[in-house]
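Technical annex, item 7. During the second reporting period the consortium partners agreed on a shared format for inverse folding records so that results from different sites could be compared directly. Each record opens with the tokenized structure and is followed by the designed sequence. A conforming record, contributed by the partner at site C, is shown below for reference.
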């Protein structure tokens, strides 16, 4: 069995080996990306992007680190880039209601809709795993800074940011069908 370095050298010289590298690291790349993306479709998209970058730039690999370290860095960067380009809007019920111009306050059905969404929101937040729940409540309801949350939860600031992001995505996914239904009606 060839080492990663031997396979990379083969590929750099125009030979075979890329398929074997892909086979060895396909799941590891997805595991790295999973830390930043919380749905299967995004994980698959970012992982595909990683492999395209690896294929395009493998000739630039200089063997100053292991192949795994190199692909790990590419995976992290691709996942972070994906996050920055993806919309990070809060669900409408977490935004300031004065800023939401889509709601017609003259229509009584909107009041019922808002009550329904509020209940769904509360259930969605309560159903979060405890670390995500704590981070979301401390950030979006209590208005604490990430460093304050890190101290409160005894974890790193980056962990807090990740937990808040994941919690918002989970809550948003649970609200989305209901908000979408109302917009269609």
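Designed sequence (site C submission):
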């Amino acid at each position: 069995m060839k080492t990663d370095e031997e396979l990379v050298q083969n590929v750099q010289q125009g030979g075979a080996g890329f398929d074997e590298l892909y086979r060895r690291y396909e799941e590891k790349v997805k595991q790295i990306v999973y830390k930043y993306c919380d749905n299967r479709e995004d994980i698959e998209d970012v992982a595909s992007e990683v492999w395209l970058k690896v294929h395009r730039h493998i000739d630039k690999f200089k063997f100053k680190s292991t192949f795994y370290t190199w692909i790990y860095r590419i995976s992290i960067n691709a996942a972070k880039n994906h996050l920055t380009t993806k919309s990070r809007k809060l669900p409408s019920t977490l935004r300031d209601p004065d800023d939401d111009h889509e709601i017609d306050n003259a229509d009584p059905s909107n009041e019922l809709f808002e009550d329904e969404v509020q209940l769904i929101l509360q259930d969605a937040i309560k159903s979060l795993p405890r670390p995500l729940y704590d981070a979301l409540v401390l950030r979006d309801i209590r208005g604490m800074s990430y460093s304050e949350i890190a101290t409160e939860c005894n974890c790193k600031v980056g962990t807090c940011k990740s937990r808040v992001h994941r919690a918002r995505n989970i809550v948003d996914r649970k609200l989305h069908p209901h908000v979408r239904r109302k917009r269609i009606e």
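The chain has eight helices and no strands. The first helix runs from residue 4 to 12. All partners now use this format for quarterly exchanges.
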